[in-house]
């Protein structure tokens, strides 16, 4: 019976799905390369979260036919190396788009209304000084990217009466917003939200130069990937009030180190890369990932490939 590696946080649902398709689920304490090699070197499929899955590991897994990233981003998977070794690499696009989009809009509202700061002060029975919430209507929101999640964000925001600016490497048209160049988006927006993949070209695409373009009253929101922002530059920009604040669900290093300055800054709202982890998206992600694994192990092509095995 072919074995399929599944992540522990999807154990309940994936164990059932994998068994229904006639495969043996394998759930380890973690998905570190050393753990996989020691305890499951004969897997035929692997379903992954955000941990690294390098080509060097794939070479040591002779039965491996498919690696699927349970989520949209797949920068942790060496998909090019996989292709060279005849291994499919897939992901689950759109599986959590509504969940992440709703969280994005929620965070923009948290920043606009100063909800987190106000609640924290109230819980600590401290005086709420300089409480200056803003209305969102009439503000300008810049959306970087135009993928599944970004489009949901744009559609949801359209109901708030905001002006929406959009940047994408391949400009299109949208009935909810206007496509503009990079500089225009960052200089004119009151809120900038990031929804592009992590690649060599996008690493640290938001840095001190970018923050200096922004209004001092503007906010940065990141639900894309932590590496999109130069985190050191962002901390300095927040301290120096180059920007007003930030809402972040992703970081350069995850989990976010306990000593990170982002945990201490009062103008930062942070969450632990959890925007896509709703009950509904959890099941949809599992079903999409397992379906592609089953297809490949049954001799078919996957539905959501990110490479083409040679």
TrEMBL record:
Residues 107-275 form the D-isomer specific 2-hydroxyacid dehydrogenase NAD-binding domain. CDD domains: PGDH_like_2. Pfam families: 2-Hacid_dh, 2-Hacid_dh_C. Keywords: NAD, Oxidoreductase. GO terms for cellular component: cytosol. Residues 10-307 form the D-isomer specific 2-hydroxyacid dehydrogenase catalytic domain. One of its GO terms (molecular function) is NAD binding. Gene3D superfamilies: NAD(P)-binding Rossmann-like Domain. The keyword Mitochondrion does not apply. Belongs to the D-isomer specific 2-hydroxyacid dehydrogenase family. PANTHER family: 2-HYDROXYACID DEHYDROGENASE YGL185C-RELATED, 2-HYDROXYACID DEHYDROGENASE-RELATED. This is 3-phosphoglycerate dehydrogenase. It comes from Acetilactobacillus jinshanensis.
């Amino acid at each position: 019976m072919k074995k399929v590696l599944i992540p522990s946080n999807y154990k309940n649902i994936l164990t059932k799905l994998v068994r229904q398709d006639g495969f043996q689920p394998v759930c380890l304490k973690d998905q570190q390369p050393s753990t996989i090699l020691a305890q499951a070197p004969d897997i035929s499929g692997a379903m992954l979260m955000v941990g690294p899955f390098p080509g060097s590991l794939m070479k040591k897994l002779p039965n491996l036919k498919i690696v699927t990233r349970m989520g949209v981003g797949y920068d942790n998977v060496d998909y090019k190396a996989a292709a060279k070794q005849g291994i499919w690499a897939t992901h689950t696009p759109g599986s959590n788009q509504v969940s992440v989009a709703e969280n994005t809009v929620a965070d923009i509202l948290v920043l606009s209304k100063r909800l987190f700061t106000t609640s924290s002060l109230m819980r600590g029975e401290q005086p709420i000084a300089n409480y200056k919430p803003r209305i969102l209507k009439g503000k300008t929101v810049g959306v970087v990217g135009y993928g599944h999640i970004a489009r949901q964000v744009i559609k949801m925001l359209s109901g708030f009466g905001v002006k929406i600016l959009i940047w994408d490497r391949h400009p299109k048209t949208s009935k909810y917003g206007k496509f503009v160049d990079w500089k225009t988006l960052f200089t004119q927006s009151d809120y900038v939200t990031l929804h592009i993949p992590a690649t060599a070209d996008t690493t640290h695409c938001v840095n001190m130069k970018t923050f200096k373009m922004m209004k001092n009253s503007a906010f940065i929101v990141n639900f894309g990937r932590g590496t999109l922002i130069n985190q050191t530059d962002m901390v300095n920009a927040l301290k120096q009030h180059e920007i007003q604040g930030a809402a972040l669900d992703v970081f350069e290093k995850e989990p976010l180190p306990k000593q990170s300055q982002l945990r201490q800054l009062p103008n930062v709202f942070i969450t632990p890369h959890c925007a896509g982890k709703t009950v509904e998206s959890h099941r949809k992600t599992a079903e999409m990932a397992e379906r592609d694994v089953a297809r490949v192990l049954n001799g078919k092509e996957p539905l959501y490939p990110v490479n083409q095995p040679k």
